[in-house]
Amino acid sequence: MIIKILVGLLIALILFLLFRPKKIKSGFDVPEVFPEKWKLYLLKEVNFYASLDEEDKAIFEGDVQRFLRRVRITGIKTSVDDEDRLLVASSAVIPVFAFPEWEYSSLHEVLLYPDLFTEKYDFSEQDRNISGMVGSGGVMHHVVLFSKPALHQGFDNASDKMNVGIHEFVHLFDKQDGEIDGIPHLIMKNQAVLPWLHLISENTKEMLAGKSDINIYGATNKQEFLAVTSEYFFERPKLFKEKHPELYKVFSQVFKTDLANSQLGDNKLKRSIGRNDPCPCGSGKKFKDCCMGHD
């Protein structure tokens, strides 16, 4: 009897070792120490990062490193450089910054396309109009796709309330409870589903009547409403709070952050660094004598 139990335990152990989930690695050699040129790039291009204090900047950097170690970023007929990787990772980190150790468990790879694409992932057809998409079905189940120019445009223009990177990662955030349905897990957990659906309904009516400054694409369905308004929340928090206080209150609870009252405020333009300003790398030198123009 004891021998049978031991054999059973041994078989169970062997099966566990063979079929246990394996830790996914991206294949990209992420530096152990966050490079100064990466810090400088984030400071210039990512308002959310630039608004953080030094302690939170370090946390953001760690989140970016962890994402890049786990998620592969692949270019489809386009190159992928560090700047592309940093914008993808920043897009992923921003919505979940208030959630320590968050991982997009269903995501294995991000594909960057050289242009807009179709629902069939084709970027050669004339009627292509998609800038970002969460893949579904088969080999695309664990993939997110972006038009590389659109990804960069989302960070280049900080006043248009649009950022395709944030948009698609909010879809993945929404997927935490098993499906992308426009009802985040925290809303379900707090049993605030009906008030949330009412807010969506009322705002959608205003959008369709041309009485709202929320991107009309958000009226497509609940999923897109959540993603579009999340872009607005993270890009223009003060304006969002002024124009849509009820929505702002919900989003502050869902994302656990009060952006309108933070240092981020309502940055319409990216932070600029003067030639004679202290270099953000912390060297003590002037920007022009240190990192300015460095690759």
Automatic annotation (TrEMBL):
A single GO molecular function term of this UniProt record: metallopeptidase activity
Pfam families found in the cross-reference section: Peptidase_M90 (PF06167), SEC-C (PF02810)
InterPro entries found in the cross-reference section: MetalloPept_cat_dom_sf, MtfA_fam, MtfA_N, SEC_C_motif
Record organism: Algoriphagus chordae
One GO CC annotation: cytosol
Top-level division of the source organism's lineage: Bacteria
Name of the protein in question: Peptidase
